[in-house]
Amino acid sequence: MVSIGIEGISVAGSDLLAQLDHLRVHSPEMHRRIDQSRLHSWQQEQEAHEAIRDDFGSDITGGRGSSYVRAQQLNVDARAAGIRRLIELMTQRGEGNQAIVDLLGGDGLVRRVCSRIGLPDVEIMTCDASPHMVQTAWATGVPALLQRAERQLFRSGSVDGVLLAYGTHHIPPALRQLVAEESYRVLRPGGAFLLHDFLSGSPMDTWFAEVVDRYSNTGHDYAHFSEDEIGRYMAEVGFDFKTMEIDDSYTATGVTPDEAEQNLGEYLVDMYGLSKLVESLGPHQAHRWAIEQAKSIFHYPEQPGMTSSSTVEQLDDTRLWTCTVPRRAVIGIGWKP
Questions:
Q1: Cβ pair 67, 273 in contact under 8 A
Q2: 56 pLDDT band (50/70/90 cuts)?
Q3: In the predicted model, is pLDDT for residue 1 greater than 80?
Q4: N or C end: fewer C-beta atoms under 10 angstroms in the chain?
Q5: pLDDT digit string (tens) for 301-310?
């Protein structure tokens, strides 16, 4: 894997050509996979149209991107176990160094987690439709590319994996089939496409409706996937696929059980931009309220290998306590024949 330890680079999140120039230096293997004609036509289209809604823009512009980034910086390992599982599933049939496009990469969390946990032979290309996220990724040492999931800029048959996770429901239903088609196009034969979301009616769906939609400035009125919907996209495009549920819990640590819970509450407030909650209760009480709501909402039936309810445990000899809030995601993973 190429190290993410490059010096932070100042590049405008909307300047696709500047990103390409930096990519040539800092991630040449990914740079050679770019389809130049697609890139230039996309750049022209970006310049000709008004900016679209960006929930992950900076807090100053009304988005929740600044607090989202703060959450990842304070607790980069909060979702590490789930991310590890996704990447392991994607790479199980591959050999050698594998190039994976992270379509909803934000500020580069998946790439940073892969580097921290030492997953070998994987290079993650962070892509996102939010200029703020792309700019932040470069500034924190992660090569990134402004790209929409339904308008991928890579050459046909040029990458080993395409990851669509952590925000999939933000893609309008009318565009979801096109995202699957584009992912099929850019994959080499045998390459993997992984689609990850939280089912309609699941605890995560409840969290978004009852907490995020009410207490964030951006709201959260998005349609989550059903398992049948995921399978339909995979089948219609032509993937050899399967669907499954995985454990994708949140975790945080502290020197006491209360501190571990409080830290996870802070993560949730920042992660989902619950600014109205902070304005109403103040930071400390907002963090406590968030973790208590999460403990109440996130419950699942008992299942081997899955966390079913919240726990606070002292797991090792570091004397740190770990707070875990369970979360289960549904995924579809397909391989291109």
A1: yes
A2: very high
A3: no
A4: C
A5: 999 989 999 9
Q: Domain for residue 212, yes or no?
A: no
pLDDT digits (tens, 9 = 90+) for 121-147: 899 999 999 999 999 999 999 999 999
Residues sharing a CB contact under 8 Å with residue 184, sequence separation 6 or more, in sequence order: 193, 237, 238, 239, 336
pLDDT for position 48: 63
The number of domains in the chain is 2
Domain that holds residue 305: 250-325
Is residue 265 located within the same domain as residue 304? Answer: yes
Cβ partners under 8 Å of residue 311, min gap 6: 322, 323, 324
Between the alpha carbon of residue 180 and those of residues 94, 204, 241, 267, the distances in Å are 20, 23, 12, 31
Q: Are residues 175 and 255 in the same domain?
A: no
Three-state SS string over the chain comes to CCCCCCCCCCCCCCCHHHHHHHHHHHCHHHHCCECHHHHHHHHHHHHHCCCCCCCCCCHHHCCCHHHHHHHHHHCCCCCHHHHHHHHHHHHCCCCCCEEEEECCCCCCHHHHHHHHCCCCCEEEEEEECCHHHHHHHHHCCCCEEECECCECCECCCCEEEEEECCCHHHCCHHHHHHHHHHHHHHEEEEEEEEEEECCCCCHHHHHHHHHHHHHCCCCCCCCCCCHHHHHHHHHHHCCEEEEEEEECCEEEEECCHHHHHHHHHHHHHHHCCCHHHHHHHCHHHHHHHHHHHHHHHCCCCCCCCCCCCCEEECCCCCCCEEEEECCEEEEEEEECC
6 located within any domain: no
What CATH number has the domain bearing residue 94? Answer: 3.40.50.150
